[in-house]
Q: What sequence folds into this?
């Protein structure tokens, strides 16, 4: 894993997982229409497992250990693992209900959630490869943005606290 950028691998994994989930939604919808559709569906499941296993599964643990300095790292990693397993439990409980109610369209919901994750990764997650925790902490302190174009808004430009209304009274 040290040869690849975590952020780009995470993005490729998320994008390919979205594609696999959409393929699953389409193939299961039309599974009886074509004799070869079940095979494409199986290929979609296997591809999703591979795409998830390359990035979405393990990379949060890599990045989590690189985002936090030694002091808060154990608590942060424990909370991250708890959120991961809580999410797995939630998916295991919700998926059968969704499958009963909306059928194969449930895969589109999960692909939309993964798309939101991809957008979050693209906008906010810094690259952690080759950086120690103090360097990553400086990146986060400078606005937790992954790109210079997404720099934090200067709070002195606009007063959104509502104090202007109070001054007018």
A:
């Amino acid at each position: 894993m040290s040869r690849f950028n975590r952020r780009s691998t995470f993005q490729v994994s998320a994008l390919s997982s979205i594609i696999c989930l959409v393929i699953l939604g389409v193939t299961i919808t039309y599974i009886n229409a074509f004799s070869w559709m079940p095979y494409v569906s199986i290929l979609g499941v296997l591809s999703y497992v591979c795409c998830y296993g390359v990035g979405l599964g393990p990379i949060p643990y890599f990045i989590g250990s690189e985002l936090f300095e030694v002091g808060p790292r154990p608590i942060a990693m424990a909370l991250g693992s708890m959120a991961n397993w809580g999410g797995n439990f939630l998916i295991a409980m919700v998926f059968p209900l969704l499958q009963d109610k909306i059928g194969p369209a449930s895969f589109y919901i999960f692909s939309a959630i993964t798309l939101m994750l991809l957008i979050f990764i693209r906008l906010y997650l810094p690259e952690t490869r080759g950086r120690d925790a103090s360097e990553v902490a400086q990146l986060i302190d400078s606005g937790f943005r992954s790109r210079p174009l997404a720099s934090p808004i200067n709070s002195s430009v606009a007063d959104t606290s509502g104090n202007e209304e109070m001054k007018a009274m």
Observations:
- Confidence is low (pLDDT under 50) at residues 150-169.
